[in-house]
Amino acid sequence: MRLSRYFLPVLKETPADAQIVSHRLMLRAGMIKQQTAGIYSWLPLGFKVLKNIERIVHEEQQRAGHIPMLMPTIQPAELWQESGRYNDYGREMLRIEDRHGRDMLFGPTNEEMITDIFRSHVSSYKDLPLTLYHIQWKFRDEVRPRFGVMRGREFYMKDGYNFDLTEDAALHAYNRHLVTYLRTYERMGLQAIPMRADSGAIGGDNTHEFLVLAETGESEVFYDARIEDIRLGGREIDYDNVDECRGVLDEFTSLYARTDETHEDAIFAEVPEQHRRSARGIEVGQIFYFGTKYSEPMGATVQGPDGKPVPVHMGSHGIGVSRLLGAIIEASHDDNGIIWPEGVTPFHCGIVNLKQGDADTDAACETLYVELCKHGLEPLYDDRDERAGGKFATMDLIGLPWRITVGPRGLKNGVVELTSRKTGESEEMSVEAAVAKVAEIYALHKGLAHPEMMSTRAFHTYI
Ligand code: P5A
Q: 350 and 258, same structural domain?
């Protein structure tokens, strides 16, 4: 993309009403525009990051064999009356009446709808296990929408639902989801710690929230600091292996880590004092096992091996896709702006032309642009007739991990400058070497996607 042809409405001034850094930076970098309280338009740069996050979520879900689909945003009230949640959900639910006087609602979550789909089409235990998921807009009329996309009223969520014959099988689905979530967040450059939590309006006793530690986080958390040293890393997990998934859950949940709703002083006191931490965190996901809470009242049964009908065991699993943009920025920024992790960056590399109109400089920039594109990369070329200082400030603000600076002086010696946004370190090298280096960096990230999925056309239609 050439910046002269892009739509990047960066703000010079810091918006006065944005209280936390991620909200300020998203507004300043021209990523979002508030339309009304808790409802945002996603401007091109923000939209690109949102889609990148979504892509990683899809890849990791499909790696585990979970099946993508799409349910509508508007739901009929009847389904919620069947489960008993229509009244329970309270004022957070946006209720709508259509022209025929029928009660509808803007979905805050989809347990009822997926249970309805399941009961219409699945009748035998032989069709289990099954996990369906979608990524769709939700609406919750939050009392205090704030911090930009962090607590929106309209927000984008991945929600997945598992159907299993037995409690044990459903607990394996729970553990499997925990592993997929750990992988997902790590690919986004985040450490999200699973913590015991409260199940709230979704239900069930078994639930973990995933928290990214941040001073601006809305959740109060208590944990054993040694948990911060545990990473999933590059290990390959066999998602069908019950013991292996259970092992990861045990590893990540045996140290004390709880949100304030489930925190118990007496148990926390057993953690050696030097490891005890109380902090704040951003909840970027939550997984639930709730047994037959929905399947029983809604009649979602299958014929078991003995021919008798049994209600299926279910769980649901959510990732705050739009909230993740805020969480990533809270975790990765400096005084000059955002620092995108390579996995989610809106453009792979910036190209700054220090002397627009100079034939050699323009030509070198064009070569860089074309060669990077040939490697399947998307550079953002600042080809505007602007001062160098302004171009650097924009690049730093929007946070591309790599910048190539091209000027007549360097070109005389046959070099351009490759700079890391994160470390600020620069290296001089030829145009060819710069292209090769950037391509090599991102080749690593492509390798993280499942090779079979990346090669199927079907996969690309989801994003
Ligand atoms: C799990 C999926 C559920 O709704 N039903 C389907 C379950 N869980 S949850 O914890 O309530 O939400 C899942 C994740 O969505 C994000 N989230 C939000 N993001 C932005 N603004 C909001 N108002 C908001 N509410 C929830 C969180 O990341 C949460 O973990």
A: no
